[in-house]
Automatic annotation (TrEMBL):
InterPro entries xref list: Bact_OuterMem_StrucFunc, MotY_N, OMP_bac, OmpA-like, OmpA-like_sf
GO cellular component, one term: cell outer membrane
Alphabetized Pfam families for the sequence: MotY_N, OmpA
Signal peptide stretch: 1-22
Name of this chain's protein: Membrane protein
Compartments where found: Cell outer membrane
Domain of life: Bacteria
Gene3D superfamilies listed in its UniProt record: 2.60.40.2540, OmpA-like domain
Alphabetic keyword roster: Cell outer membrane, Membrane, Signal
CDD domains given in the database record: OmpA_C-like
Amino acid sequence: MKFQANLIIATTLSMLTLQAHGAMRQYSATADSSQWFVDRTTRLSCALSHEVPYYGEAIFSATASKNKDLTFNLDMVVRPDSYDFAGLESVPPAWRAGLPARVMGQMKLLKKFDGELTNDISWEMLTELEKGYYPTFYYQDWQNQHDQISVALSSVNFKNAYWEFLQCRDNLLPYSFEDIAFTVMNYKFNSSELTKSSRKRLDMIGEYLNNDPEIESIYISAYTDSYGGRSVNMAMSKKRAEAIKTYMASKGIPEDKIVTDGFGEKRHVAPNDTPIGRDKNRRVVIQISKP
């Protein structure tokens, strides 16, 4: 029994010695090489990126939407070969080495995918960087079972880029492509003039189109209620669709990407014997697609 106890103690000491001597491969930018960059080409997305030499890139990003949530992506040159977790700690810089690291959470490692984190922990990482700390990931190397990996984000040269990123995020549109991809708008009675709320909606769509060069096609279909005669209604619906097309073209969308149809009093979505029903039938439907 005594021999077994001594063997266990010896084995434990050997493992601790292994962990303390050379079982960790560390990746981090030096103070001289640490750089942060902001990509803010449109009002649809913002990215704050940081290269980790000989490892990959760390990217914080936000896209146009109501909440403008953050995501974090650890873009690895060599992606995981298995499923695991990486621990995440906030590590003090070398000049504050006496302070302890703080556990922040963990990140899933999915086979053949980059690492990703959602809004709350992404914000926490940014605030730790703002304080001068180094958010650091730790995980078991999937290529060498004897090694562990640490990947640190350097806070050197962070603050100015972070402020630029926050301003970029604040300027993002408060709606996404999904919010405007399918839209139904309504017209005033016997008129090609949109209602006030529909005009506001159309302006919102126009602002989005002005910022997105990837729009592939726009299909505009217009409808009327059953009052006024079929031929008149057909002409009115086509006029309404063409008016929307003219507006889209003024926002820089090539006209050959815009298709219009006027259906007159066909395809009602509500009864025509009530004012509310007729209001619903006087409509234009805009469908926008991307690659």
